[in-house]
Amino acid sequence: MDTLFINIKELLQVRTAPIEFVSGKEMSELPSIKNAYLTVRDGIITGFGSMSNCPKTDGFKLIDATGKLVLPAWCDSHTHLVYAGNREGEFVDRIKGLSYEEIANNGGGILNSAKKLQVTSEEELYQQSKVRLEEVMQLGTGAIEIKSGYGLTEDAEIKMLNVIKRLKENYPIEIKATFLGAHAVPSAYKNDKAGYLQLVINSILPKIAAQSLASYIDVFCETGYFSVADTELILAAGKKHGLIPKIHVNQFTAIGGVQTGVKYNALSVDHLELMREEDIEVLKNTRTMPVALPSCSYFLSIPYTPARKMIEAGLPLALATDYNPGSTPSGNMNFVVATACIKMKMTPEEAINAATINGAYAMGLSDKTGSITIGKQANLILTKQINSFGCIPYSFGNHQIDTVYIKGMPVDK
Ligand SMILES: N=CN[C@@H](CCC(=O)O)C(=O)O
Ligand SMILES: [Zn+2]
């Protein structure tokens, strides 16, 4: 049966003509219709407009949105949501003064998560991950990217990607999988990074590609992890197998990873806590989306991505959670949007664009979701009764969601 939302106080992110993403000044425009209706059939947006042109209600399942807003569900383009256990111990170590780097050097960090994941069965990993996926769907996420990278052996990386595949099969939400074999050098290859790179390139990657387990290839391009030269090797190999680059760069140090991303036509370059003039410059007029992860900056007390500088330079920007057990144990996009406004000085319009249409682009989904456009998936947030969309970031630490719809169906609370 068709669904008709009526009396929507404001319908946000209305894009009659489809767009891929917004950049620079366009990021401050959030087109909307006040006192609107919206129709949905078979999970797809079929129409919208002003209530004065609302179709007759017969034959529709009616949803009265009086006092409430409707916007596209959040598009979270960077997560590590499939992981085993947690790292609460390291959290306490950091409170007591150890740095993220010191913890990693003592065998904590990514290697700690890899150790746990390697001894966790696929079934158990699926059970733990599905809880997190359900939680973020309830928090308004309507499309998500999930990375491997806590396996660091052939079997464990494939186990992670199989869990992502099962999530895809069992949930209505659009999920994109990324192979992040080069997340850290595993202990077994401590003194042989080249050997590990060969394993990733010559053994794991071809298997993943043959089984179509991932769309994207990622590398943690960072001092102490993988250099620019290592990153180039992995991206070139990934591209040979049809995987598109989406990479971790400029989190703690700026070593030229942004330039590498652009050189390899990465769909996105993510983190960007440290941005030099040349990093901003090289992103201009490219199709590579910069992605900021403000919850990671918050949790690790590291700099925030310089959003104002980047937007004023004419760049686009997407926002994502980075949901993972080490640097960001939160998949809450509402908090991301609020933190982007509060700490990065993005306006609510910019933050909503960054968390919807630009996030969709950063995972290759801007033709399917991220805006209110006829033909796109009806991935929607119906808010509580609120004053204006400014309340969404204003009420940080809380959310203003009444109901989330994914492909037209309400998500169970
Ligand atoms: N920086 C690299 N990877 C993750 C964190 C990994 C971890 O600490 O487990 C991130 O994006 O923040
Ligand atoms: Zn990450």
UniProtKB/TrEMBL annotation:
All copies of domain Amidohydrolase-related, residue ranges: 279-408
Enzyme class, UniProt record, top EC level: hydrolase
Binding site for Fe(3+): 78, 80, 248, 322
Record's subcellular location: Cytoplasm
Note accompanying the cofactor annotation: Binds 1 zinc or iron ion per subunit.
Residues involved in 4-imidazolone-5-propanoate binding: 87, 150, 183, 251, 327
Pathway assignment: Amino-acid degradation; L-histidine degradation into L-glutamate; N-formimidoyl-L-glutamate from L-histidine: step 3/3
Transmembrane regions listed in the UniProt entry: none
GO MF assignments: imidazolonepropionase activity; iron ion binding; zinc ion binding
InterPro entries xref list: Amidohydro-rel, HutI, Metal-dep_hydrolase_composite, Metal_Hydrolase
Single GO biological process annotation from the record: L-histidine catabolic process to glutamate and formamide
Entry cofactors: Zn(2+); Fe(3+)
A Pfam family annotated for this UniProt entry: Amidohydro_1
GO cellular component: cytoplasm
Annotated signal peptide: none
Keywords assigned by UniProt, alphabetized: Cytoplasm, Histidine metabolism, Hydrolase, Iron, Metal-binding, Zinc
Residues given in the record as Zn(2+) binding sites: 78, 80, 248, 322
Catalytic activity, reaction form: 4-imidazolone-5-propanoate + H2O = N-formimidoyl-L-glutamate
Record: residues binding N-formimidoyl-L-glutamate: 150, 324, 326
EC number(s) reported in the record: 3.5.2.7
Physiological role: Catalyzes the hydrolytic cleavage of the carbon-nitrogen bond in imidazolone-5-propanoate to yield N-formimidoyl-L-glutamate. It is the third step in the universal histidine degradation pathway.
PANTHER family: IMIDAZOLONEPROPIONASE (PTHR42752), IMIDAZOLONEPROPIONASE-RELATED (PTHR42752:SF1)
Family to which the UniProt record says this protein belongs: Belongs to the metallo-dependent hydrolases superfamily. HutI family.
Protein name: Imidazolonepropionase
Organism: Polaribacter pacificus
UniProt lineage: Bacteria, Pseudomonadati, Bacteroidota, Flavobacteriia, Flavobacteriales
